[in-house]
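User: Can you predict the 3D structure for this chain?
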Amino acid sequence: MIVTVLTCIGIGIALLVSALLIIPIRIFARGSVLDHMGFDYRLIIDWAFGVFSVRAAGGRPASLYIIGLRICHIPTKIGKKKKSPKKSKPEKPSPLTWLKRIRKSFPQINRILSRFGRACFLRGSLSGEIGLADPADTAFIGLLSRLLQIHTEHFHLSLTTVYEYQILQIRAQMQSTLIIGYLGFVTLGLLLDKQVRVLLRGLFQTNYKEDSV
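Assistant: Here is the predicted structure, written as structure tokens:
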């Protein structure tokens, strides 16, 4: 009797894990950041072809749905933590300094991101204009967007940097289908590549001391 119960539990767990690995998770997101209108977004995440879904939109809390029926709200606010006395932190380099150090690795990073984008069946676009108060931050965003160069059949990235005045106008739309088992297979394939392992090891061991001139 105990063996039968344990067998049924094992089969149930195996079926659940198989479902989590095989059944796709679909994501739809649309958002915008505009100077005068603030931040607005819409997000839908569903699993098992809409049987379970989470939906959220600007100004409204996220909610859990089952077969299209709203079940409950999902709390997103976290209690405020007490502020601890400020401690002096070691000075870190500007984003531009950090980007210059790994610039030579960006072709490989871009290839990895493109591979994951295809594995996630990513579709959509991101466009807009950015002009920040600090010219170095604006230059960082501009250089990063030029290095990534995401212009594929299904996804288009077009960010313009402006130095004459401050502006923040970004619009994005994205659709993706995640299959956990397939993503795990793609990740394993990338980790088996020696060049990718060396790249990741170097990124995690980045030294934040300023390079000597």
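The helical segments are 2-22, 95-102, 106-119, 135-148, 180-191, 194-204. DSSP finds six helices and eight strands in the chain.
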